[in-house]
Every structure is written in C-alpha cells, then in structure tokens.
Amino acid sequence: MVMKILVLGSDGQIGSDLVPYLRSKNHAVVEFDIFSNKKNDLRIPNILDNILYDIDFVFFLAFDVGGSTYLKKYQNTYEFISNNVKIMNNTFDSLKLTGTPFIFMSSQMSNMTYSTYGVLKKIGEDYTRALETGKVVTLWNVYGYERDPEKTHVITDFILMAKNNGVIKMRTNGKETRQFLYAEDCSECLELLLTEFNMMTEFKIDLTNFKWESIIDIANIISSEFNGCPVMPGKKVDDLQLNVMNPPSEYILNYWKPKTNTKEGIKKIIKKMGLYG
C-alpha cells in the first residue's frame, strides 16, 4: 500500500536512511528537518497543522539528541529540556488535531529515571499512549552514517579517531554492554511496521539486533579495519546509562529479523564515510 509519509527528523542518522528506503518502496515522502531547513523548526507552535491534513502517516524521529558525549554535556541544561518539550508538545498537539497515525521513536533509556533524556522519551511515550492514534518504537543504539559532527555516536566517534588519529581513545573502560542496530535494518523494519500498523497488537515495540556487545569489543572491531590501530580504554565507568541492561521484548521477531551483524554494519559505514584506502 503506497502512502504519503511525513518524516520528522529526516536528516538524522535514522531519517537519512529511512527516507530513501521508503521511496524505494514507492511511498511519497515529505522530509522535515531543521538541519537542512531552518524554517522546519518544531519548536514553533502549529507549524505542522496544515501539512498533516495531506499526510497518511508520520514517523516522529525528531529530537534534540546526540551520542553519549553530547548527552553528558547537554541533557541537564535548560535549552536541551526546553527544546525537546517544545518539539513534543507542538508535534503532539498537531497530531491530536488531525488524528494522523504515527510512530513515536523512543529509546531503551526511557525507563532510566536518572537520565533527563530518558525521562523526556518516557513523556513522549505517555503522550503517544494518551492520543491512541500512535505506537512507540523503542530503539537500541541505531548506528549509521551521521551528518552532524556535534552529535555523533560512539561508532562514528571511534571510526574518526582511528582514521584521523591512528588511535581509539575511549571515554570509559569499555566494559559496558549495549545492543546495536544498523540503520538500514532499522529502516526495513519501520517500513514493515508502517504497512502492518493496524495488525500489530503491541503498543510498544523494541527494535534491536538482540545481541549484547561491549563497547571495547566495538572499538576492537573498528581497530581491525584500520590496520589494528591501538585501543586505549579510559578509566571511567559508564556514568550515562550505568550499564543497565534492559531486556528487550522479542515481539518484533514474529515479523522481522535483523540482517546485518555489527562488523558488517561498521564496514558499510566506513565505506559510506569514504574512509577506506
């Protein structure tokens, strides 16, 4: 079924893969992101009202967020909190007005009440539940090609360190574990959730590769792609997520399974970044 889809946050590392994937499935896609167009600012009230009346479905990816370094620096600032509250309030107001079905992209950190970012994502989940026209997809460390150098995540950070400095200097000791998901696999699943939206019985769906991997293992994979460059673990422990290992629901595996393992995904990102050779 071909649909007209609005992607909020279309230039992010998820949106930039999702948009071309949706188009490859013949959907009409409307891109909306402040990164490429300063007028597309979701902090402005009612900015979506007129747009949504001509839209069949919305992917709500937009959020003021970045990797662990960005979150550590900004998540407790007034601006970070204000930006995300305004983005959510204005977007959900418009979705309530039009009744457009949507998916809100949450995080596996949404139950980590010690994290401002996690609390904000939980508020987004509660907004979604209250509207009754959306579903929540909980993402687990999606990685892909990133355009904003100020908001890069750990895999991109390590790749750039290996290429530019010949050494990977880690912020922590690397013992913390995460589950990762390659952005193209994520896009495939999101398109499936779009087409099967009314058939899905779960309100909240976890989206991950269902494999725990340590950060130092990630560093070593990247090192192997750059002539075995040195990996230097830091002395700090994980003070962002406190190495909480939330068990994901496996509901989505009834419909979809990830195709790309982490090593393959990293190779693809390095190639996209033009850093081989």
Helix content: 25-40%
Kindly report the CATH topology: Rossmann fold
Order of helices and strands: EHEHEHHEHEEHEEEHEEHEH
According to CATH, the homologous superfamily is NAD(P)-binding Rossmann-like Domain
Mean pLDDT: 89
Strand percentage lies at 15-25%
Question: What's the CATH architecture name?
Answer: 3-Layer(aba) Sandwich
- Provide the low-confidence segments as ranges: none
Q: Per the principal axes of the C-alpha atoms, what is the gross shape?
A: globular
Number of strands: 12
Q: How are the strands of the largest sheet arranged?
A: 2-1-3-4-5-10
Largest beta-sheet details: 6 strands, parallel
User: Structural class, from secondary structure content?
Assistant: alpha/beta
